[in-house]
Specification:
Blueprint (H helix, E strand, L loop, with lengths): L2 E7 L6 E7 L7 E11 L4 H4 L16 E8 L11 E4 L2 E3 L5 H4 L10 E2 L11 E5 L3 E3 L6 H4 L5 H10 L9 E5 L5 H10 L3 E6 L5 H7 L3 E4 L5 H7 L3 E6 L4 H8 L2 E9 L20 E4 L5 H14 L5 E5 L3 H9 L6 E5 L1
Parallel strand pairs: 10-11, 10-13, 11-12, 13-14, 14-15, 16-17
Antiparallel strand pairs: 1-2, 3-4, 3-8, 3-17, 4-5, 5-9, 6-7
Helix pairs in contact: 4-5, 4-9
The chain binds zinc ion (2 copies).
């Protein structure tokens, strides 16, 4: 039987181990993918430390997977073999619960996360249910596209679904890292007036290159004071949450403004009712998106020239790639190629 290589976490806090497994035959409703690229995401630490509800080990991480359809199981009318597709954070959904019957698949309580509840893309091959598959522009570069399936979709889908925010409105993107460097690009191309918020002056040139209209250096003056001088933010996209920064950013909101939290490693922060009552402020969050949301995100990114800045490692170096990403030194996303 032909085999494939994958990088496995076997115990919580352990190192990656490489395994040769038999290439599986997809079961009913499943698709076999030949992996072309897989992004390394900060959330992969939930697998490494077995720290996500329902996660179990051993597990192959990876939820930013680009691959081609090799074969499909019984009952799969789509996707066709040979198609370039993606699998993101949203692995699948049940189709039967109330959320699924309403078509709100992200809210399915039985939905699974790729690389956490099922094996992901740190591998040469991967099995995925057809329900979570994203069709991609067929000429998109797999390495360039991989981070769009988690970092990209999270900033794109969260911003496009907010009420009371439209083209021309002031949107602040807090943090210029893996999520933020994409957030600035998407926000600009969606027609917003974009303020990049950083804790130092060192990323000014980069932020402006990515499309920022304003640069907010919080070492000079709190973000709230600077954004209020610009009229108050309609939306603050919080990609790098730390308690102090979040507490101040609530004060940066204009009327009906929204603090939208997408960075999933937040400290607790405190909030006074008086920070949100007078201006009808909102504090909210958003979780990535479905396969079809990922399709929209990748099409938008390709049409608008939005690109993730990536550093590439071979699958054999999964441990180095993961450690490098966790060190915070990556500029800005790390991608594995088999
Ligand atoms: Zn992720
Ligand atoms: Zn469901």
């Amino acid at each position: 039987m032909p085999t494939f290589k994958c990088a496995v976490i076997k115990e919580a806090g352990g190192k990656f181990e490489f395994e040769e497994r038999e290439i599986p035959t997809p079961a009913r409703g499943e698709v076999l993918l030949k992996v072309k690229a897989c992004g390394v995401c900060h959330s992969d630490k939930f697998t490494v430390f077995n720290a996500y509800p329902g996660c179990s080990l051993p597990r192959v991480p990876g939820h930013e997977v680009i691959g081609t359809v090799e074969s499909v199981g019984e009952g799969v009318d789509w996707p066709p073999t040979g198609l370039l597709v993606g699998v993101g954070w949203h692995h699948d959904h049940c189709l039967f619960c109330e959320a699924c019957r309403r078509g709100d698949f992200m809210m399915c309580p039985k939905s699974r996360v790729s690389g956490i509840h099922a094996d992901g893309g740190y591998a040469e091959y991967m099995i995925a249910p057809w329900t979570g598959i994203a069709e991609l522009p067929q000429d998109i570069d797999p390495v360039a596209a991989a981070p769009l399936l988690c970092a990209g979709i999270t900033v794109f889908n969260s911003m496009r679904n907010q009420e009371n925010v439209g083209p021309g409105d002031l949107v602040a993107v807090q943090g210029i890292g893996g999520l933020g460097h994409l957030g600035i690009q998407f926000a600009k191309k969606m027609g917003f007036q974009v303020a990049a918020v950083s804790s130092s002056g060192s990323k000014k040139e980069l932020a402006e290159k990515l499309g920022a209209d304003h640069y907010i250096d919080t070492s000079v003056e709190p973000a709230s004071a600077q954004l209020q001088k610009l009229g108050g933010a309609k939306l603050v996209l919080a990609t790098a949450p730390n308690a102090k920064s979040m507490e101040d950013l609530v004060n940066a909101l204009g009327s009906n403004g929204r603090l939208l939290i997408v960075g999933a490693d937040a400290d607790k922060f405190s909030l006074s009712p008086f920070q949100v009552i007078p201006n009808r402020g909102h504090v909210c969050g958003w979780p990535s998106g479905t396969g079809t949301d990922c399709t929209d995100c990748c099409n938008f990114a390709k049409n608008q020239g939005i690109a993730s800045m990536n550093e590439v490692f071979p699958l054999d170096k999964a441990q180095e790639a993961y450690d490098y990403m966790m060190s915070g030194k990556a500029r800005f996303r790390v991608v594995l190629t088999p």
